[in-house]
TrEMBL record:
Protein name per the record: Membrane-anchored ubiquitin-fold protein
Keyword presence, Membrane: yes
Domain UBL3-like ubiquitin: 6-116
Major localisation: membrane
Species the sequence originates in: Lithospermum erythrorhizon (Purple gromwell)
Topology within the bilayer: Lipid-anchor
Length: 118
């Protein structure tokens, strides 16, 4: 029975409403490990998938989870029932714009003013 309590069933809800999982993870696993699992299981037919662990944010019980925390530390006593499946929401950051793209976007936005005195 102790082995069952050392595992947590987690599914990851993507922004389009689809899920990855559920899959069983040890409560000692880090959030970074969960993110690596998401990268490995990311559906190939989805556009704009994460490239690295840094591109992924996990949200559970309204909190953004930090990479260095364990699953046990992130559990919610109200939401995570024994034997139940915990749902974590996945937010993917878009890749950063390249420097050349930033320059071209910033150039037209230069504000200039001119005064005319009549």
């Amino acid at each position: 029975m102790a082995g069952v309590q050392d595992q947590l069933e987690i599914k990851f809800r993507l922004s389009d409403g689809s899920d990855i999982g559920p899959k069983s993870y040890p409560v000692a696993a880090s959030v970074a490990t969960l993110k690596e699992s998401i990268l490995a299981q990311w559906p190939k037919d989805k556009d704009n998938g994460p490239r690295t662990v840094k591109d992924v944010k996990l949200i559970s019980a309204g909190r953004i989870l930090e990479n260095n925390r364990t699953v046990e530390e992130c559990r919610s006593p109200l939401c995570d029932l024994p034997g139940g499946v915990t749902t974590m929401h996945v937010v993917v950051h878009p890749p950063p714009m390249e420097k050349t793209e930033k320059k071209t976007l910033e150039e037209p936005q230069q504000n200039r003013c001119g005064c005319v005195i009549l």
